Automatic annotation (TrEMBL):
Encoding gene (name): SLC35C2
Taxonomic lineage from the root: Eukaryota, Metazoa, Chordata, Craniata, Vertebrata
GO CC annotation: membrane
Record region (Disordered): 324-359
Protein name as it appears in the record: Sugar phosphate transporter domain-containing protein
InterPro entries: EmrE-like, Sugar_P_trans_dom, TPT_transporter
CDD domains xref list: TPT_S35C2
First-listed, main subcellular location of the protein, grouped into a coarse class: membrane
Membrane topology term: Multi-pass membrane protein
SUPFAM superfamilies: Multidrug resistance efflux transporter EmrE
Parts forming coiled coils: none
Compositionally biased intervals (Acidic residues): 347-359
Entry keyword set: Membrane, Transmembrane, Transmembrane helix
């Protein structure tokens, strides 16, 4: 039965997808922080997550292939190693350092520092000519940098080692998302669907992070009673289940981002990301006891102002004569849509829109 109010239905769908995204995005942040208090092996945890994401991505590809009756893309070894490897390495470092930092810093400091990734994404987008320069970008950079400085200046729970880890993760995150965008833009590779991208990235990410794991955690993990040298089965089962839940949350985060973008727009994801930072910080203060001074809050507001300005500029220029960023695949690329979510209502909506354009 068609909804009598299409606008209301679309609004409810957007709200539902946004909440779905928040559950995984905020959930994995607090979950990883909690897990690091009892399981001090962030690199091993990340490797487990990568394995689970790969398995779930492979399963999703099989379901999509069965549903659409079309084969999924599989890159050759030459293309795989030459095109995907740089993106996979940057992604592995970003995620690995982010999880590692939870051993040292609070969720609020992590959230604030991770927001600086916008600066590095902007920088590398200019380097790779994915975004056109404009004078307002200087103001964006100054606002985000000033906000981050104010937040860390008077922080009572500041940890230099953890802060540098997250900052380096944000830097490699800028490379990661820029290279990911370039990777998904290459039509000849056929990786426009993020599920296919996630499937191809995980093995190389695992191999890139594995040497760091051996160097810093290999010996200590083999001698811990969390996984080895267990005297009872229950602690081992708890560790395995805890790691598995984190992997499911990690896959759900990427999947929920894909759903939100494919069914709404990249602008919706950007705006949702801003409010997500606010929710994360408020939850960290309210439930984890993170302490923030007036200067910290002011710095957070200044930083969010810079991020909001950046989102506004992207929206303005994308509607003008010179788009600053390549629009994410949407209706021009129907393979981006999940076939399991394509309903008759959507088909009728698209048909009505086409008829209106013809008139």
């Amino acid at each position: 039965m068609a909804c009598p109010l299409p606008i209301v239905c679309r609004a409810l769908r957007t709200v539902g997808l946004t909440i779905f995204y928040y559950v995984f995005s905020i959930g994995i942040t607090f979950y990883n922080k909690w897990l690091m208090k009892i399981f001090h092996f962030p690199l091993f945890m990340t490797l487990v997550h990568l394995t689970i994401i790969f398995c779930l991505s492979a399963l999703t590809r099989r379901i999509m292939q069965w549903w659409t009756r079309k084969p999924r893309v599989t890159l050759s070894w030459k293309e795989y190693l030459s095109k995907v490897a740089p993106t996979a390495l940057a992604t592995a470092i970003d995620i690995g350092l982010s999880n590692w930092s939870f051993l040292f810093i609070t969720v609020s400091l992590y959230t604030m520092t991770k927001s600086s990734a916008v600066l590095f994404i902007l920088f590398f987008s200019l380097v790779f000519k994915l975004e056109e320069p404009n004078p307002f970008l200087i103001l964006v950079v100054l606002l985000i940098a000033a906000g981050l400085f104010m937040f860390t200046l008077k922080s009572t729970q500041f940890n230099l080692e953890g802060f540098l880890m997250v900052l380096l993760a944000s830097f490699t995150g800028g490379i990661r998302w820029t290279l990911t965008q370039v990777l998904m833009q290459k039509a000849e590779l056929g990786l426009q669907n993020p599920i296919d991208t996630m499937y191809h990235l995980q093995p190389l990410m695992f191999l890139g992070l594995f040497p760091l794991f051996l160097r810093y955690e290999g010996l200590s993990l083999c001698t811990t009673d969390k996984l080895f040298r267990v005297s009872e089965f229950q602690p081992l089962l708890f560790s395995v289940l805890a790691l598995a839940v984190g992997g499911i949350l990690a896959f759900g985060l990427g999947f929920s981002e894909f759903l939100l973008v494919s069914r709404t727009s990249s602008l919706t994801l950007s705006i949702a990301g801003i409010f997500k930072e606010v929710c994360t910080l408020l939850l960290a203060v309210g439930f984890l006891g993170d302490r923030m001074s007036t200067v910290n809050w002011l710095g957070f507001v200044v930083c969010l102002s810079g991020i909001s300005l950046h989102v506004g500029l992207k929206t303005y220029y994308s509607k003008g004569s010179g788009p600053t960023l390549r629009p994410l695949p949407g209706r021009e690329h129907p393979e981006m849509e999940l076939p399991l979510l394509t309903s008759r209502e959507d088909a009728y909506d698209e048909q009505d829109e086409e008829e209106e354009e013809e008139q």
